[in-house]
Design goal:
mainly alpha, Hypothetical protein af1432, 14 helices, globular
């Protein structure tokens, strides 16, 4: 069995993304949906119910009193916050442990990087028309999920991969694909396809390391830019981070200036501090 066949077998066996979370994400797209309707769906998953209540009572939201019911929690936090909570709490299980050691990332670093990219995407989305903030957050959160499945294979071939990167001055992703048959971005796209996420999100994950991503569809450009900015701040860069580069001045099409980028990077630092308790970034 080839390396690629082994990797694809792992993808075929990936646990399903929680159906309750996906159903809630569908429901909140309807502005008329009520907290009672959402609670009726969420209550069937005890783990998610407990997590929603725990998160709602975190200092992040600064609520004046302890929340003990789903209905009350959903009314107080609102639909937008609920989407972020649902996708984050449902995704966290796939980032537990040292799942990206092969990429020279310490335990928890891949999760921190993913959360930071999700937050940055949501900060930047205000400049981008026709991209939903929840979709931007989700795509940012899951953009590197492929590393969770390729890590062990990269670790086995790390010396060879990095040797080629240095000797031949090629991108990490190119050496990764030639060694393993696929990049972590491609594997991530396959995972999202298996989880039945929208095509535009699958494409954004697949193309987030494409140097020409800024010239592609808005969500792809947004995720690629968010990832590059987070890497430039040293959050979860890892072995492949230093090779992250984007060509062209595609941010001008969105009216994003360097001042905007500087402000959003400063905002990210504060948001990551606030998210420390909320998303278990320790």
């Amino acid at each position: 069995m080839s390396r690629l066949e082994e990797i694809l077998n792992l993808v075929r066996d990936v646990p399903p993304f929680p159906k309750v979370a996906q159903r809630v994400l569908e429901l909140v797209e309807n502005p008329a949906v009520t907290a009672r309707q959402l609670a009726e769906v969420i209550q069937y998953d005890q783990a998610i119910t407990a997590n929603v209540l725990k998160i709602c009572n975190a200092s992040y939201f600064g609520l004046p009193r302890k929340v003990s019911s789903l209905d009350e929690a959903l009314v107080l936090i609102g639909h937008e916050a609920l989407k972020d909570i649902m996708i984050a709490s449902s995704s966290a299980q796939f980032y537990q442990g040292n799942v990206a050691a092969g990429y020279q990332l310490e335990q928890g670093e891949l999760w921190r990087h993913s959360v930071a990219t999700a937050i940055m995407a949501k900060l930047l989305v205000r400049h981008v028309k026709d991209v939903d903030a929840g979709i931007a957050f989700t795509a940012g959160l899951l953009h590197d999920i492929g590393k969770r499945f390729l890590s062990a294979f990269v670790a086995e071939d790390f010396k060879n991969i990095m040797g080629r990167v240095v000797r031949e001055n090629i991108p990490f992703e190119q050496a990764e694909k030639e060694a393993l048959g696929a990049t972590h971005a491609e594997i991530g796209a396959l995972v999202l396809k298996r989880w039945e996420f929208p095509p535009e999100m699958i494409m954004a994950v697949k193309q987030h390391h494409n140097p020409d991503a800024l010239q592609q569809d808005p969500l792809t450009a947004l995720v690629a830019l968010s990832n590059a900015l987070v890497v430039s701040m040293g959050i979860g860069a890892g072995a492949d981070g230093l090779a992250t580069s984007l060509h062209g001045d595609g941010i001008k099409r969105f009216g994003i200036t360097q001042v905007d980028l500087d402000l959003h990077m400063a905002d990210l630092v504060g948001e990551m501090d606030r998210a420390q308790e909320l998303l278990h970034l320790n």
